[in-house]
Design goal:
single chain, about 400 residues, alpha+beta, 12-stranded mixed sheet, 4-stranded antiparallel sheet, 8 helices, globular
Length: about 400
């Protein structure tokens, strides 16, 4: 885990929309000198450019933030509607998800209450039913039913025994935290949000962190239940707005590690397809679609081979440019190298899992780098989960190797 303060590159790269898989070349840069105290001939540095900026003192950052955003950091008291009301989506709320719209307008609403009013059709947009994930447009009319605010949670010292255990579990997962942001190392098998048959999930666990004004930390993005690693949480509405905007503008950089069968060729490449949801009675998966297909969204992933184990299994690093559902899993299956242990997309006939490896999804949200709402950069890294560490040990893979995905384009 780490947090580094550095400047982002303000010049965006052009986006290549070609629907193909092609190799990428490392960006030209001056070679960095050896790290202080590093041994000659050691591993190359994680970044090509040498860092020169030092981390600013926390007090200085807080003072600067207080001067620049004195009002934004403080939550605004908002009265909940006791009867049906109709509001208009503002310019600042354009492209905001329905559930985030309600959270922003009415701090303290529980996730379950928001989902219930949307699911029952009590909330309408331009007179029509919507899904909580649907995006709003400026000028739309939103019908809001009477809402009920959950009672504020008790002080930490008076939490129930179960709540104290939940809080301790969250603290154990924490790899970075400040007044605005929380980064968790989500374990394998723990869902981020609730669903059919899911009683314990991160969003529900965050209820124990609800403050005296009724606000609880908010999910900024999501990862699959069986994907371990970095999960970003906003502790304030101010942080949620900035971090969500960073994801929307693709200022956030995410790196994933995976184990796949065979050896992808070329060893570094770009996967560009359209993905669409395919639902059945038993399951929901993402399929490769064509441009113009109903529900199809463009998805881009860069991949790079890090190390191989006898060309039978390969450790790959992945950088998603877009953030579609199951994007990495569907893309690796598309190029013939599905992720080991994937119950939805691994369909190689007569393939045997090597002895000693657990049949669990070998996918880790390894690292996230994103601008901090108050300046600087959040840079958090998650360790290999237990089942992947076991596989790395058995296959002789070195988790400290240089990750070539660093050289992949940002767009």
């Amino acid at each position: 885990m780490s947090r580094r303060i550095k400047r982002m590159n303000p010049k965006p790269r052009s986006r290549d929309e070609r629907d193909d898989s092609r190799p990428f070349k490392a960006r030209s840069a001056k070679k960095a000198g050896p790290r202080p105290g590093a041994k000659p001939g050691g591993k190359p540095p994680r970044f090509a450019a040498e860092r020169t900026e030092r981390r600013a003192p926390k007090a200085a950052l807080e003072k600067k933030a207080a001067l620049e955003t004195p009002a934004a950091a403080e939550p605004v008291e908002v009265l909940l509607p006791t009867k049906v009301q109709t509001v208009t989506v503002t310019a600042d709320e354009n492209n905001m998800r329905v559930d985030r719209f309600l959270e922003a307008r009415f701090p303290g609403l529980s996730f379950s209450h928001i989902q219930r009013v949307v699911r029952k059709g009590e909330l309408r947009v331009d007179g029509k039913r919507v899904d909580s994930k649907d995006r709003l447009e400026e000028g739309q009319s939103v019908r809001i039913p009477p809402l009920k605010l959950d009672a504020p949670k008790a002080a930490p010292g008076s939490l129930s025994e179960a709540a104290q255990k939940t809080l301790a579990a969250l603290k154990e997962m924490t790899i970075y935290e400040d007044d605005d942001v929380l980064v968790l190392n989500k374990p394998f098998g723990l869902a981020v949000q609730g669903g059919s048959g899911t009683t314990r999930h991160i969003d529900q666990m965050l209820e124990v962190m609800r403050d005296s004004k009724g606000q609880k930390p908010r999910l900024v993005h999501r990862i699959d239940k069986d994907t371990a690693g970095c999960l970003l949480i906003a502790k304030t509405r101010f942080a949620a707005s900035h971090l969500t905007g960073a994801f929307r503008s693709r200022s956030a950089r995410k790196t994933y590690w995976a184990l796949v069968p065979g050896l992808p060729k070329p060893k570094q490449g770009r996967i560009s397809t359209f993905l669409a949801k395919e639902e059945s009675e038993d399951d929901t998966i993402m399929r490769i679609a064509q441009h113009g297909d109903e529900g199809a969204s463009h998805a881009i992933t860069y991949y790079a081979v890090v190390e191989t184990a006898g060309n039978k299994l390969t450790w790959v690093s992945l950088k998603p440019v877009t953030g579609r559902t199951h994007q990495l899993r569907a893309h690796m299956e598309h190029i013939g190298h599905p992720i080991v242990g994937d119950p939805k997309y691994f369909n190689i006939e007569n393939w045997q899992l090597p002895g000693g490896l657990q049949n669990r999804l070998h996918l880790l949200a390894r690292r996230i780098v994103i601008p901090h709402p108050r300046g600087g950069v959040i840079d958090a890294t998650a360790p290999l989960p237990q089942h992947m560490q076991q596989s790395w040990n058995l296959l002789g893979l070195d988790a400290s190797r240089f990750d070539p995905i660093e050289n992949a384009p940002e767009e």
